[in-house]
Amino acid sequence: MDKDAAKFKKEKLAHNLKELNSLLVAFSGGVDSTFLLAMAHEALGQNLLAVTAGSVIHSVKETESACDFAREKGIRHMLIQLDELSIPDFVSNTSERCYHCKRNLFEFLFEIAGKKDIKHVAHGANVDDLKDFRPGFRAAGEMEVMAPLVDVQLGKEEIRLLSKEMGLGTWDKPAMACLATRVPYGDLITEEKVNMVEEAETFLANNGFRQFRVRHHGSVARIEVESSEIEKFTATNLRQRLVDKFRQIGFLHVAFDLEGYVSGSMNRAIGDVRKEGTLE
Question: What CATH number does the domain containing 238 carry?
Answer without folding.
Answer: 3.30.300
